[in-house]
């Protein structure tokens, strides 16, 4: 059966992804050019600095998207051990070798002019690894020691290395995706309950172990109690939301991006979108995520292989966690964790990994569509025979 480019690709998923990613590049520029102008000594920064950098990453992500979309997703089963090894090596390099610091954390690798955040790639790597391992443990997944525990050793080591950076938000997201994949694999409720208690206890212990971390996680409850420090970012975000109203002040018309709102082009880009494009702009973003996540669930449900199904659902849940964490943080419903808004916030590593993740979804979807078309062709042949 010949490959049909027009029929076999999930165009709703692809076009929605690119609509949101292109919108993200536009909003990165709109929310960052004032800050970019004041970068460097004497305010001699290039106002197009963040736009240029994000555009380069967007082009690179497009090339990777095309490649992974046409790559057979089953190859990741064989690549899983190498992906885990590379994940460990990259995290170790950040801590003990070539890591670069920023914002009080050491999370990046500086490779010449390229700055990568390994933890972003590790998130996808862990989804691939867990999908591969638990897809092979379906027969004895009900056995805690033999079926559930072994992969958790790898997860625990990755968690420790990410916490050394430190990055509680990413580490927590990995734990949640792990729990979700174990749940989909068919583990017993008693085992899931035990893992949930352990994970929650670990999160609470880490949250209260450092004063700065505890204050940041609890400041969302009453940001006005400390309006000039821990509550500043959230309060300025509130002002941006309130200023935008239904239709916004117009593209480029934000006041809060004039150095009032910290991280306006990264973690808190959604308030700027709301200020400039109103609630309608926010609904556009949420709608695009809804389409992407819905298509991901459909793709995972229709996949005939346990590995492909777990991989699709793992990717969907990983993206959903980031969206919920970010929107929850900027709206004051959840603690601020520093997790960016996928496809929209400034950040090359995040954009690249999210595009690759959705490309893998598109690859699984392509396989599903081709298998369905093959079955229909076979049924037609039987009818005419």
UniProtKB/TrEMBL annotation:
InterPro entries: FtsW (IPR013437), FtsW/RodA (IPR001182). GO terms for biological process: cell division. It comes from the Bacteria. The chain crosses the membrane at residues 12-34, 55-73, 79-99, 144-162, 168-185, 192-209, 277-298, 310-336, 348-365. It holds the Pfam family FTSW_RODA_SPOVE. It catalyses: [GlcNAc-(1->4)-Mur2Ac(oyl-L-Ala-gamma-D-Glu-L-Lys-D-Ala-D-Ala)](n)-di-trans,octa-cis-undecaprenyl diphosphate + beta-D-GlcNAc-(1->4)-Mur2Ac(oyl-L-Ala-gamma-D-Glu-L-Lys-D-Ala-D-Ala)-di-trans,octa-cis-undecaprenyl diphosphate = [GlcNAc-(1->4)-Mur2Ac(oyl-L-Ala-gamma-D-Glu-L-Lys-D-Ala-D-Ala)](n+1)-di-trans,octa-cis-undecaprenyl diphosphate + di-trans,octa-cis-undecaprenyl diphosphate + H(+). It is found in: Cell membrane. Its EC number is 2.4.99.28. Its main location: membrane. The keyword Transferase applies. It is a multi-pass membrane protein. Peptidoglycan polymerase that is essential for cell division. Belongs to the SEDS family. FtsW subfamily. This is Probable peptidoglycan glycosyltransferase FtsW. It comes from Alkalicoccobacillus murimartini.
């Amino acid at each position: 059966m010949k490959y049909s480019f027009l029929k076999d690709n999930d165009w709703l998923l692809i076009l929605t992804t690119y609509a949101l990613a292109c919108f993200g590049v536009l909003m990165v520029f709109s929310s960052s050019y004032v800050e970019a102008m004041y970068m460097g000594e004497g305010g001699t920064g290039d106002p197009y600095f963040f736009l240029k950098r994000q555009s380069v990453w967007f082009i690179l992500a497009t090339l990777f998207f095309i490649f992974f979309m046409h790559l057979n997703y089953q190859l990741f089963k064989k690549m899983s051990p190498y992906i885990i090894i590379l994940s460990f090596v990259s995290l170790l390099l950040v801590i003990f070798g070539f890591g670069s610091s920023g914002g009080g954390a050491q999370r990046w690798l500086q490779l010449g002019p390229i700055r990568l955040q390994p933890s972003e790639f590790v998130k996808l790597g862990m989804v691939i690894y867990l999908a591969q391992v638990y897809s092979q443990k379906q027969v004895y997944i009900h056995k805690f020691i033999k079926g559930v525990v072994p992969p958790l050793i790898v997860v625990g080591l990755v968690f420790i290395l990410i916490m050394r950076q430190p990055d509680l938000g990413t580490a927590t997201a990995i734990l949640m995706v792990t729990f979700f994949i174990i749940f989909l694999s068919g583990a017993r409720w008693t085992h899931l309950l035990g893992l949930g208690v352990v994970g929650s206890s670990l999160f609470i212990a880490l949250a209260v172990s450092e004063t700065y971390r505890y204050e940041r996680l609890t400041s969302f409850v009453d940001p006005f109690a400390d309006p000039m420090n821990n509550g500043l970012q959230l309060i300025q975000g509130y002002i941006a939301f309130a200023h935008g109203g239904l239709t916004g002040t117009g593209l480029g018309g934000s006041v809060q991006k004039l150095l009032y709102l910290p991280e306006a082009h990264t973690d808190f880009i959604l308030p700027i979108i709301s200020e400039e494009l109103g609630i309608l702009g926010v609904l556009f973003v949420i709608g695009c995520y809804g389409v992407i996540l819905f298509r991901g669930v459909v793709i995972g449900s229709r996949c005939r292989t346990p590995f492909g199904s777990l991989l699709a659902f793992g990717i969907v849940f990983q993206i959903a966690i980031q969206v919920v964490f970010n929107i929850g943080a900027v709206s004051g419903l959840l603690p601020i964790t520093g997790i960016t808004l996928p496809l929209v916030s400034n950040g090359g590593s995040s954009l690249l990994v999210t595009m690759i993740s959705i490309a893998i979804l598109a690859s699984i979807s392509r396989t599903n569509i081709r298998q369905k078309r093959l079955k229909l062709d076979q049924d037609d042949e039987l009818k005419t025979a």
